[in-house]
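Dissemination and training. As part of the outreach component of the grant, students in the summer workshop were shown how a complex can be specified as a set of sequence lines and then modelled as a single object. The example used during the hands-on session is reproduced here so that future cohorts can follow it. Participants entered these lines:
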Amino acid sequence: MKRRAFLAVLLGALTCGALSITAQTGSSQWALDWSALTYHMSHPMHQVEGTSNAAKGKGICQASQCNFLIAVPVKTFSSGDSNRDLHMIEATKGAEFPMIVVRAQFAESELDASTIHANLQVQFAGQTAHYQQVPFQRTQKGSEVQITGTIPLTCSDFKIERPSFLGVPIKNEIPVRVQMNWHKL
Amino acid sequence: MEMPWARLSFRTVCFALLLASPTFVLGQAGVSDSNAPGVTAAQTSAAGSQSSPPAKTNQQPLPNAPSAAPQEPSLGDLGITQQQMQANPALQARLDKRTEMLKIHQRLGLITAIPMVADLITGPMAKVKGRNGQIIKMPTQANIDLHAALGSTTAGLYFSTAYFAIFAPRIPGTHKRGAIRVHEALAFVHGPGMILTPILGAMAFKQEQDGEKPHGIAAAHGAVAAITALSYGASIIAVSWPIHLKFWEKK
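and obtained this result:
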């Protein structure tokens, strides 16, 4: 009887070990290859876009959940007009808070889906805003995964005083178009 | 025959193995990582539940509860240093001052355009009419005074506008790109023009007062004024370009 109990314990231990190894190998890591983050600013007289290709990112999928981190310096956004870019840095307090940090979280099961719905936490201009279930389109191209989507940022979310021209402020919405290429490590 | 102590040992050994397994170690790493700023309280509490006392292992696990705290990448993983994250209040203050001065520059610049246009309109009214050999018609004193007053106002506002652009703090390490280069290049046209126009105007006025038709360099007063005003207008448009008039759009 004791032997049977011992065998049961041993079998259980082996199962636990196997499960543990499976859980470990189930994790995956992702690295950002290339990105273009473009903000769109709208004014009755102007439509401006500023793009940064300087984002860095990493993702870890583990325990059926994926956590991605993307960081981009505020000063790397270029609209083609240095004067406007400096004004943008000033308005967004880019010297005090030089980095925009985005944390994305989504279910690992969505990794193979054509649309990923991510919960985002965006740290920008000294404020943190959350955006739930933001859709991103996913396209597999060889070993690379292309992610495109738009983060619906607004000035008020980050307590940014809206710049104005001729007494008319810019629109509150400053959507950021995201284009990223990731590869699995 | 069922042996209760055997089931207990099985669970205890399972738990002991899980404790020793690398997954648990990874999970613990996730806990320490989740203490980094920005991680939500919910994630921290979820990670904390992983280190609950063994007695809790007898409880039924929640259907969606993760087996271990998910690991999160940190800014350090991206190669971002503390220095890159560091605030620069001095630079922010410099940017604030620069923006404030350029806002005044913008407002004064637009205001300056009003007397400048009015001066261009009143210019011909303050001009001696008639060709050489014909009867010369002198302008009224009121027209001359109005034109001179508008000119003085324009010059005063113009140089005030220029002051706020010239003395706005420069931001080190920035290279000028885009419309600002055209805007600044045109200042080399309307800047000297704004100095020359009143001088030529004063010379022309003196010649008129002497009963002469403006001649010599003074005769170029009108042309210089027109070129100055045109380059000034172009300078405003250049810095505002491209203009998309969409006032009809709903806010």
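DSSP finds two helices and eleven strands in chain A. Students were then asked to discuss how this feature might be tested experimentally.
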